[in-house]
Design a protein that fits this description.
Length: about 220
């Protein structure tokens, strides 16, 4: 049985999520703030964390950033703020999805199922090869990207997106294809999520950002110039 950690200072929100999660067959642990969430994550493993952003003691963004130092557990952020800046910040610190309040509990559970499914597939089917281009090196099995020997830190979703594009080097990838392959057919967001991650990915790649070519009206292509 998969175990979820639900982190929210509102009792009502925790109980709604717990009710639907247990109906889906998940075991649920609760935390009322970021500090408690970090301590729980140090003591035990979870298959996914649902983390509210605005909480006392320690906010969700800070808690997510701290947890990422010692765990790669998938994290879905919850927030009443839906501005692009907040979503970008959430992705930058390592969250896997971002859900704006008020939300549909059924949709949230579908997102939870999708993220856990993708996470399990990624962990069980690692690629065992390395791609190199000049000073850029991509180790698929170790999930490590380096530029001129220096490791490049990326969010989990950046890794997935970049690895897929590199493995399909030279191929025009439509926006729909990228979303379906990286986020899954059951993705509930919009195409701006893809654009946000491409923007973050280019920032991470520095001089090699030019390898990601925008195909206007179509999508993107990774190519070695």
């Amino acid at each position: 049985m998969s175990k979820l950690l639900v982190v929210d200072d509102e009792y009502r929100i925790r109980q709604i999520i717990k009710k639907y999660a247990e109906f889906e067959g998940y075991e649920v642990e609760e935390a009322v703030d970021g500090m408690q969430a970090i301590e729980l994550c140090r003591r035990q493993d979870f298959d996914l964390i649902i983390m509210d952003v605005m909480m006392p003691e320690l906010d969700g963004f800070s808690a997510c950033k701290e947890i990422r130092k010692f765990k790669s557990t998938p994290i879905i952020m919850l927030s009443a703020r839906g501005e692009e800046y907040d979503k970008i910040h959430g992705f930058e610190i390592g969250s896997d999805d971002y859900v704006v309040k008020p939300f549909s509990p059924k949709e949230l559970m579908m997102r939870v199922n999708a993220v856990i499914k993708r996470s399990g597939k990624a962990n069980s089917e690692p690629e065992k090869d390395i791609f190199t281009y000049k000073g850029l090196s991509v180790d698929f099995s170790a999930r490590i990207v380096t530029i001129d020997g220096e490791r490049v830190e990326m969010t989990p979703k950046e890794y997935e997106l970049f690895f897929y594009m590199v493995k399909n080097k030279g191929i025009a990838l439509t926006r729909e294809k990228l979303i379906s392959e990286v986020w899954g057919y059951d993705f509930f967001g919009d195409e701006r999520t893809l654009d946000t991650h491409i923007k973050l990915l280019r920032k991470s790649l520095k001089d090699y950002s030019k390898c990601i070519v925008t195909l206007r009206g179509v999508g993107y292509r990774f190519e070695t110039l």
